Amino acid sequence: MARRLLSLFAALATAVGLAVFLPASTASAAECAAPWSSSAVYWGGNTASYNGRNWQAKWWTQNERPGTVDVWADQGACGGSTPTDPAPSGFVVSEAQFNQMFPNRNPFYTYSGLKAALGAYPAFANTGSDTVKKQEAAAFLANVHHETGGLVHIVEQNTANYPHYCDRNQPYGCPAGQAAYYGRGPIQLSWNFNYKAAGDALGIDLLNNPYRVEREAAVAWKTGLWYWNTQNGPGTMTAHNAMVTGAGFGQTIRSINGALECDGKNPAQVQSRVTKYQQFTQVLGVPTGANLYC
After folding, report:
1. Does the pLDDT of residue 268 top 90, yes or no?
2. Where is the Chitin-binding type-3 domain (predicted)?
C-alpha cells in the first residue's frame, strides 16, 4: 500500500513539474564463498571470498591474492561488508579472516572469546594507521600460531616440565600446587609469578585458580594480550610497542622467546614465526614492514 501511494504521489508530482525521489529498494548482499587461502589451488571458475567480496578465478592460480593480480574477477560485495570495512565489529581481523588463519584451530579458541578479551587492552591493534593496526594484529596472531601449533594446543604438551614452573622463593608460593603453573593459552603463560602478575593486572585470581586459562576462552586470550601489551620478556620493549613504533616484527620474537631463538640461536623457529607473519599480513592486505628477524 505504501509503495502504491508513493507511486501515485510521484505521478501527480510529475504532472505539476516537481522532482520526486522514491526510496531505493534494498538488496541483500550475496553470501560469501569459502575464504581465499594462499595454500589452496583454484581452477578457472572456482570462487573464493576475500576482504568482504566474492572473487572468481579466471584460470589456474595459487597464492595470488584476489584484487592484486589479474587472475581474479571481482564478483561484488558479500556478507554485508565491503573491502574498506572487512571487520564491521571494530576489530581489524574479521571472523572469516580469523578462520582462514586458523583452519584447524581447537574449538576452545573462539573468535568471540578473542573479541571479548580486547577490552582489557584497547590500544592493541587500535593504535596508529590502519596499516599499523593490521600489522600488529597479524604479528600477535602469527606468534600465537607458532606457540600453539595453529591454535590447536591449549596447554603445554611436555608434561615433564609441569613441576618446574613453581618458584617457591616468591612470598605467595604456589597455592594451586607444585605442578599447576604450566604453559596455557595463546602465548603459553607459565610460572607462578606470571600467573600472579597477569591475574593482578586483569582482576582475576589466577594464582589460586590457574585452570581458568584453559577453561575460559576470554581469560586465555586476555593472558596472551597481557603479555603482548605489558611484558618485555627477554627483549627491551613490549611486543605492542615493537609494532606501533616501527621497531618491527623481529622485536616481538625477542620479547616472547628471544633468549632461546634470537641472535642465531634457533633460526628455524624464528623463520617459522616470520613465515606465518608474512602469510597473515597478506590475508589482511598490508605490507610486513621492515626488521622481520631478531
Report:
1. yes
2. 33-75
